[in-house]
Design brief:
Layout (H helix, E strand, L loop, with lengths): L7 E6 L3 H11 L5 E4 L7 H5 L6 E4 L7 E2 L7 H6 L2 H10 L4 E3 L4 E4 L4 H13 L3 E3 L4 E7 L2 E6 L3 E9 L14 H8 L4 E7 L3 E2 L2 H7 L6 E12 L13 E7 L3 E3 L1 H7 L6 E6 L19 H9 L4 H12 L7 H12 L1 E3 L3 E2 L7 E6 L17 E3 L7 E2 L4 H18 L2
Helix pairs in contact: 1-5, 1-12, 9-10
The structure holds flavin-adenine dinucleotide.
The site of flavin-adenine dinucleotide (FAD) has 38 residues, from α1, α2 and α12.
Length: 410
């Protein structure tokens, strides 16, 4: 292979959402685009996304819906390639979709249609796709870059890293994107499991886990407070009004997945179990009963009986106080059910990886490295992590198009 004449204009590493999108957008105008993936087929995570129906975007996606050390980083790309742009692509391919809730768009039929759409676009743009190729390193050379794989070494003028994060290793996730970033001098914000179920401590498990399967609508938040400390000032973490689900190991459901991205070991999570309601109001009325039976009756109107019973006995375990201030404390406890998770279910169960290539090392308009010209990072490998609800795919599409635009205008 002649070093002075690169074989490819660009090699895109990872044929997931971001990689496929970037490959065909670049391939429409560049001659030689190669897309590599270690799996048997492209788009494996898309196939399992959104319960098999792929929540492919969120119509309300804005930078505020993402976690990053630099909250402004995603703004430019998200503004230039919007949910409406992706919806146009989906419509062009005749894929039917619906809005489930909160701007979340899902395929009516199957996530397979999104993968097929991306594959067709890649084929039409003349992209060469090679699956079953595992990338081990990227090095600078006279051609620009050499990409080392289990099969061979390939040369390219530019390289786009779209290898995703560490979540779901059995679907091909590796840390190669972070390794390439670090070995070429980039900082990486410590990757951590996000959008992931939380685990109870042994004591909490004892108390709650036989209620597995119970769910309730709550307002959830991560609490910036560690055990034994007093929280200073107001909690600034976002709140999420969604479902909480008790599992045999801890808590899950959309409300928990959302706060898990903000939670850090040692901190608490809090749930308002009765958002917007003054549950015990009637107990203040003249002649109203003030006892555990009356409390239970009110809570049974809100939650499944078993949960109501367990909650009441947990609250009254330390003694009963039916004075006005005792009632106020019970009401407050209902709106701030707080516990300290022992951990998360980890990368095996996490929908995404938070952290990643430090955005200070990248150009927000082009996704190009500031340290290594010609090297780009897009999608989940970057320190930009979306909320649950189609935001992560919107980031994958938008960051991919930003890089492709930069590649073709070089
Ligand atoms: C169960 C589940 C459901 C989800 N549902 C949704 C949803 O409905 N909506 C939403 O917005 N987001 C959802 N997500 C998140 C979303 O799937 C990801 O954020 C998104 O796929 C990231 O795209 P990406 O292209 O950056 O990375 P990925 O899709 O992870 O693609 C990276 C690719 O690189 C390949 N790769 C890794 N290492 C190597 C290597 N060494 N050599 C070669 N190839 C390599 C991987 O095999 C993979 O194919 C879900 C995630 C999971 C796990």
């Amino acid at each position: 292979m002649a070093l002075s004449e690169p074989t490819y204009d660009v090699i895109v590493l990872g044929a997931g959402a971001a990689g496929m999108m970037c490959a065909f957008e670049a391939g429409r105008r560049l001659q030689r685009v190669l897309l590599l993936d270690n799996g048997e087929k492209p788009g494996r995570k898309i196939l399992i996304s959104g319960g098999g129906r792929c929540n492919f975007t969120n119509t309300g996606a804005r930078a505020e819906n993402f976690l990053s050390s630099n909250p402004h980083y995603a703004k430019s790309a998200l503004a230039r390639y919007t949910p409406a742009d992706f919806i146009m692509l989906v419509k062009k391919h005749g894929i039917k979709f619906h809005e489930k809730t909160l701007g979340q768009l899902f395929c009516d039929d199957s996530a397979r249609l999104i993968v097929a759409m991306l594959e067709r676009e890649c084929a039409e743009a003349g992209v060469t796709t090679r699956c079953g190729v595992s990338v081990s390193a990227v090095r600078r050379n006279a051609a620009g870059f050499s990409v080392e794989t289990n099969a061979s070494s390939l040369d390219a003028a530019s390289v786009v890293i779209a290898t995703g994060g560490l979540s779901i290793p059995k679907l091909g996730a590796t840390g190669i994107g972070y390794e390439i970033a670090r070995s070429s001098g980039h900082k990486v914000v410590d990757p951590r499991a996000a959008l992931v179920p939380l685990l109870f401590s042994p004591a909490d498990r004892e108390q709650w886990c036989d209620l597995t399967g119970l769910s309730a609508e709550v307002v959830a938040t991560a609490v910036e407070k560690t055990k034994g400390t007093k929280r200073e000032g107001k909690n600034t973490q976002p709140t999420f009004r969604e479902k909480l689900l008790i599992t045999h190991r801890g808590v899950s459901g959309p409300a928990v997945l959302q706060v898990s991205s903000y939670w850090r070991p040692g901190q608490a999570v809090g749930f308002d179990l009765a958002p917007g309601k003054e549950v015990l109001a009637t107990m203040y009325e003249r002649n109203a009963r003030r006892d555990s039976g009356a409390l239970l009756a009110l809570l049974r109107g809100l939650f499944p009986s078993r949960f109501a019973e367990r909650w009441v006995s947990a609250q009254l375990a330390g003694g009963e106080d039916w004075s006005n201030s005792g009632l106020a404390q019970l009401e407050a406890a209902l709106h701030a059910w707080t516990f300290y998770p022992a951990g998360t279910e980890g990368f095996a169960k996490a929908e995404v990886t938070a952290g990643g290539v430090d955005t200070n090392e990248l150009n927000a308009k082009t996704m190009e490295s500031r340290r290594v010209p010609g090297l780009y990072f897009i999608g989940e490998v970057v320190d930009v992590t979306g909320w649950l609800g189609g935001y992560n795919f919107q980031w994958a599409w938008a960051s991919a198009v930003a890089a492709a635009d930069a590649l073709v205008s070089k």
